[in-house]
Amino acid sequence: MIKIVTIIGARPQIIKAAALSRAIREKFSDRIVEFIVHTGQHYDRNMSQVFIDELGIPEPDINLNVGSASHGVQTAKMIEGIEKVLQEYKPDFLILYGDTNSTLAGAVAASKIHIPVIHVEAGLRSFNKKMPEEINRIVCDHASTLLFSPTKTGYNNLVREGFNPANKTPFSIDHPGIFHCGDVMYDNSLFFSEIAEEKSEVLKRNDLSKDKFLLGTIHRDNNTDDPDRLKAIFKGILKIANESHMDIVLPLHPRTSKKMEQNLTDSLNERISKKVNIKIIEPVSFLDMIALEKNAKMILTDSGGVQKEAYFFQKPCIIMRAQTEWVEIVENKTAIVSDADEKSIYDAWKYFRTSKGILFPPIFGDGHAAEFICKTILNARKN
Ligand code: UD1
Ligand code: UDP
């Protein structure tokens, strides 16, 4: 039996971990046993527990309850807690997802005590080291033993950084294995797509109709914490709301709700709240989010995961960041990088409003990435 410890902490990690937990439960439970550690990075019910309940992930075995703090304090508390768990549980592998501080903490804690790290969503790069996530990704990749990249671009980034594509076993931190395997989030979208249509009442609850609304999310720190960028984003959204008369629904991350009060003027906040077709709502559950994505006309976001889900559900996407790690969706012309620029956001909306026949060729795998990862872990252990 292979013992793995899985680290979750932030919303997107809980979602990504669901795909692997499901694969283990359904196909590999006789060979892989999973021990789940929640760092407590996200803790509001609608940022954490709702996903554990809805996606059928086992309850975490331990919650470190680290909570919010500066990067240093938050990451340090996590490293301390994770190290203790690893020393007690002595797993064969530690599995990490994505690029959050929970990912970084796991990578540092495990690699220092020689527990092999598996990084799911390896190789992604924005080439902007001012993003905390870029530092987290680079450190995690270079401390990993098995690296699973969802895209060919991610895989190529790893090769460019010196990872050997020969993939000769036995693997170790000094001889890591790199794999292009598709995206576990795509596995989830396929699995939950119909369930979401059946179960979610989010459209009814918010008086929304198919193809008659736009969906937006904003939470990236350089957007929320920079008053000029946050202002430009909301001015762009207001301009679209004025002209389109469509609803624009914004399930807002708690970070953004807090920063709107601090970083937008009273008059801009008032214009937003008085605009009847801008609907700011609390963060929604995964099934509700999928239902919103599937039924929206277009998606505006600075989220990594939501950009991809826009592609999975064949929706044009306006990326309100200066660059993206998911370059394929921009190359395929299904997404436009508008940055946090009022005019570019509006122009991108105008472009997609009239464009027809956009194609979404498959670039995120075949929906079985989690199964591939489990099989590769089992093979790596044999050798
Ligand atoms: C983190 C990740 C980011 C990821 C995002 C997913 C890092 C450095 N950033 O950003 O990569 O895209 O999660 O959502 O790890 N807060 C609450 N309730 C919660 C959680 C957070 O109110 O349950 C508020 C707190 O004011 C907190 C702020 O949100 O200070 C930011 O939370 P934090 O986890 O530090 O970063 P995120 O912006 O969520
Ligand atoms: N998501 C959700 N409810 C929301 C907003 C996002 O379920 O209100 C899901 C979304 O569908 C995707 C993931 O959260 O699967 C993306 O996480 P987030 O945007 O917080 O982080 P990022 O992907 O940018 O790291």
Ordered list of secondary-structure elements with their pairings:
Blueprint: E1 2-8, H1 11-28, E2 32-38, H2 49-55, E3 62-63, H3 71-89, E4 93-97, H4 101-112, E5 117-120, H5 132-142, E6 146-149, H6 152-160, E7 177-180, H7 184-199, H8 202-205, E8 213-217, H9 221-224, H10 227-244, E9 247-251, H11 254-263, H12 266-274, E10 278-281, H13 286-295, E11 298-301, H14 304-312, E12 317-319, H15 327-331, E13 335-337, H16 342-354, H17 369-382
Parallel strand pairs: 1-2, 1-4, 2-3, 4-5, 5-6, 6-7, 8-9, 8-11, 9-10, 11-12, 12-13
Can you put this structure into words, describing what you see?
The chain is α/β, with parallel strands linked by helices. It has 17 helices and 13 strands. The protein folds into two domains: 2-183 and 365-382, Rossmann fold (3-Layer(aba) Sandwich), CATH 3.40.50.2000; 201-354, Rossmann fold. The chain has a seven-stranded parallel sheet with strand order 3-2-1-4-5-6-7, sandwiched between helices. It has a six-stranded parallel sheet with strand order 10-9-8-11-12-13, sandwiched between helices. Helix 1 crosses helix 7 (184-199), helix 1 packs across helix 17 and helix 3 crosses helix 4. The mean pLDDT is 97. The site of uridine-diphosphate-N-acetylglucosamine has 20 residues, from helix 1, helix 5 and helix 11.
What would a concise description of this structure say?
The protein has 383 residues and is of the alpha/beta class.
List the domain count as a whole number.
2
Could you spell the SSE succession in H and E letters? Answer: EHEHEHEHEHEHEHHEHHEHHEHEHEHEHH
Globular, elongated, flat, extended or rod-shaped: what is the shape? Answer: globular
CATH T-level topology of the largest domain: Rossmann fold
Helical content class? 40-55%
Termini separation (Å)? Answer: 15 Å
CATH class descriptor name of the largest domain: Alpha Beta
Low-confidence stretches: none
**Based on DSSP secondary structure assignment, what is the total number of beta strands?**
13
Number of discrete helical segments: 17
Query: What strand line-up does the widest sheet have?
Result: 3-2-1-4-5-6-7
Helix and strand composition category: alpha/beta
The average pLDDT is 97
Ions, cofactors and other bound molecules? uridine-diphosphate-N-acetylglucosamine, uridine-5'-diphosphate
CATH level 4 superfamily of the largest domain: Glycogen Phosphorylase B
The largest pleated sheet is described as:
7 strands, parallel
Gyration radius, in Å: 20 Å
Share of residues in strands? 5-15%
Which CATH architecture of the largest domain is right? 3-Layer(aba) Sandwich
